[in-house]
Amino acid sequence: MNIIRMVDANDMEDIAIGGAVLGTGGGGDPHVGKLMAQQAIRKYGPVKLMDVMELADDALVVPVCMMGAPTVMTEKLPQGDELMNAFRALEAVMGRKIDAVLCGEAGGVNSTTPFVVAASSGLPLIDGDGMGRAYPELQMVTFTLHGVSATPMVLCDDKGNSLVLETVSNAWTERLARAATIEMGGSALLAFYPMSGAVAKKAVVAGTLSLCARIGETLRAARAEHSDPVKALVDLLGAKTLFHGRIMDIERRTEGGFARGKATLTGVEDWRGQTLRLDFQNEFLIAESDGKVLATTPDLIAVVEADSGAPVTTDSLKYGQRLMALAWPCNPLWRTPGGIELVGPRYFKYDHDYVPFE
Amino acid sequence: MNIIRMVDANDMEDIAIGGAVLGTGGGGDPHVGKLMAQQAIRKYGPVKLMDVMELADDALVVPVCMMGAPTVMTEKLPQGDELMNAFRALEAVMGRKIDAVLCGEAGGVNSTTPFVVAASSGLPLIDGDGMGRAYPELQMVTFTLHGVSATPMVLCDDKGNSLVLETVSNAWTERLARAATIEMGGSALLAFYPMSGAVAKKAVVAGTLSLCARIGETLRAARAEHSDPVKALVDLLGAKTLFHGRIMDIERRTEGGFARGKATLTGVEDWRGQTLRLDFQNEFLIAESDGKVLATTPDLIAVVEADSGAPVTTDSLKYGQRLMALAWPCNPLWRTPGGIELVGPRYFKYDHDYVPFE
Q: Which of A120, B164, B274, B328 suits a disulfide with B239, CB 3.0-4.6 Å?
């Protein structure tokens, strides 16, 4: 096994920052997952990060994640044990040993939770995920585009309840798991999408965890050198700066479990006299300036503090903040017709088609 | 194995009528379950009804039932296959063959659904249940009073989705299964409370299925002989006639998935000048006359047509109907402190204590 790197407790700081950037405003605060991962690494030792292409074709790979409202997840700090319970229960259902841990969602809190299971089990963690970003629903993964079933899936809560789901589609997995998670108090731990190494090689968005680490390192280095952190981030991601401005207006509502809303920014410097409207549903999904769509889901839209480059989540947007909006291309899989159907603007009930932001 | 009787498709007519009487106004219309059972019996042969005391101590016994809103259950006529899917899936989870089928609830639709599984599997059906009547929630069974866990439980829908639940209490089973059932469209099929023969001998309310059959036979015979069906029913059940009157007022509301309400009757014959108030939550739970409580849950309160003795469900109560209200004692287990806590008036949010109706 070729180890890309060994991830220790300190490395989790950078990875969590990177996870917040790829979280594109949503996905929950990686701080909580970082604390869980650091605790597990201190107890069991560093995590072996592994290239997906190194997997044996017949290896069994299992993604783990937290599900629920970010606010609840961060209030009810879960014990790493509960993730391990889900993982081990799925292993029992599969009737064979799992060979590697996978990350379902590299953005937000779930960029860090798989490190808990990898450290606790001693198994390698694949450097990649099923989104290359954050999305709010279980079926919104590249695994779905490759015909991988989300089930058998195990869902556990912090009280000791657990469910094994077998569903007829990944959309049904989302519905039933969502209902159970709400009943369990708003947060649950999952092991799902069991897949072979051969499938993982095709279905995984590769390299996203080491990208998370590089994002964190880059921002940290730029601040240490007193150079421009946002410029360093833009260069690393191959991103475009969509806008630089101040928040003039925020509109929020909670609908169907989503934190939906709009933020309006008025431009400064090169963008003086212009306005930007950001539409969000947990994640930033659409950036529009004076009637022109600049970027839409599935491309990534992140908002960072103009000075520090620190990522800003949709729920921490405040009047008067000076921010920069960045966009960069999503994984090519999301730009296929199947990808657009699963996570394009129309799925989120916006009345326009996907336009690649370039 | 000592067979009490072989139940054929015609016998299901009487059993369904008896199930409606023990349904005490709720539990869903046994007509649907009867059709399913008749179909299965015609295809696979009669059902062997077995005395619980004949079970080997190490036998594995599994109750099956439908869960959900009675109106939905009867609109979405399930195929017997879905009950068999739940049953076989629980057998796989238990890792051993099931030896006998059990009835969770002898009142309402679930007095007949276990016949589907017994006929389809060729296994004997135990003559008994976990209530001796109908109740709306999964934990409301004598099995709970004997410390039997509702899980592992399998819950299936008509689309092919299934869940295996493991919960920390039977109240949690109810919460999670209820949430899943609602998401599945309001109706689901269950196999749960797996127990040994030794436990079943203590925890089962024995004889309720043959009582259902006798109730149906008794009403049918009385009508054929032009004798008084209500009197025959009262004699069979050791019941007391609480009231004879006409419905003057009905008040209904749906709250938390319950069909709650009150019906007021004005007396005729011996009860002229008096009024009766029946409180219901799916089932009739309290009968009160002019400020005096005549009977309360867990004792059984049934309402029948004064002429035919035909049982009347809470959702078919209509202004002007001439009805008789009967009450008879519940199984002694329900009168223990644990039983009263689980299904007494206070659990249903009525502000008074249980008073044995005698």
A: B328
Q: How far is A100 from chain B (nearest CA, A)?
A: 25
Residue type, B335: R
**Domains along the sequence of chain B with CATH:** 3-208 (3.40.1610.10), 228-343 (2.40.390.10)
% pLDDT > 70, chain B: 96
Residues of B within 8 A of A160 (CB-CB) are 167-168
What one-letter code names the amino acid at A85? N
CA distance B162 to B184: 10
SS3 B4: strand
**Nearest Cα to Cα of residue A284 among A310, A332, A316, A257:** A316
Cross-chain residue pair B182–A179, CB shorter than 8 Å: yes
Contacts of A116 (CB under 8 A, 6+ apart): A33, A36, A37, A39, A40, A64, A80, A83, A84
Does the CB of A161 have a partner CB in chain B at under 8 Å?
A: yes
Chain B residues in contact with A191 (beta carbon < 8 A): none
Answer whether A150 touches B (CB < 8 Å): no
Nearest to A179 among B162, B165, B183 (CB): B183
Q: What residues have CB less than 8 Å from B112, skipping those under 6 apart?
A: B12, B15, B16, B19, B30, B33, B34, B36, B37
- In A, minimum Cα distance to B179 occurs at A179
Residue-wise pLDDT for A24-72, tens only, equals 998 887 888 899 999 999 999 999 999 999 999 999 999 999 998 766 6
